[in-house]
Amino acid sequence: MFNRKLAYYCNNNLSLEEEYEDIFDKRLPEGKMFCPFHDNTNTPAAKRYGNFIKCFSCGKTYGVYDLLYEFNPGRLAQIEMSINLDKIEMHTRKQKAKRFKVHGIDRSRSMLAILLDLRRSFEDETEE
Ligand SMILES: [Zn+2]
Fold first, then answer.
1. Centre of ligand 1 from the C-alpha of residue 18, in Å
2. Distance, CA 127 to ligand 1 centroid (Å)?
């Protein structure tokens, strides 16, 4: 059964390269690669983007969690036992985006105004 928190933990804390190599006994290709989720031996249709792999043939996007779930469930069970899922906080895309708001500051405004805005954005975040 899909476990959201465990998936979040795996995709954000485990290395895609290391887990891929561990499962398939070969290095994660840098360019196009064969998708392990569908039969393909002629045209490599998948490619890695950051911590995920996208397959343009079957349309699946998968990360460390999906690979472990499908190809190494024993390791996934081990990981689940070794961490406290209750303590894992998941951040949504929106929250992540807010945290990086500081890069978009308007430099013509006073430092105090900027700091007050920043404080407000953090307050908003904790209210959610
Ligand atoms: Zn595929």
1. 20
2. 40
In the chain, domain spans: 4-87, 93-127
Q: Output the CA 40–ligand 1 centroid distance in Å.
A: 8
**Ligand 1 centroid to residue 57 C-alpha, Å:** 5
- Backbone CA torsion sign across 63, 65, 94, 119: negative
Q: How far is the CA of 45 from the centre of ligand 1 (A)?
A: 7
Give the global pTM: 0.70
What digits encode the pLDDT tens for the residues 32-61?
Answer: 999 999 998 888 999 999 889 999 999 999
Q: Nearest Cα to 50, choosing from 12, 81, 106, 76?
A: 12
**How far is residue 73's CA from residue 65's CA, in Å, rounded to a whole number?**
10
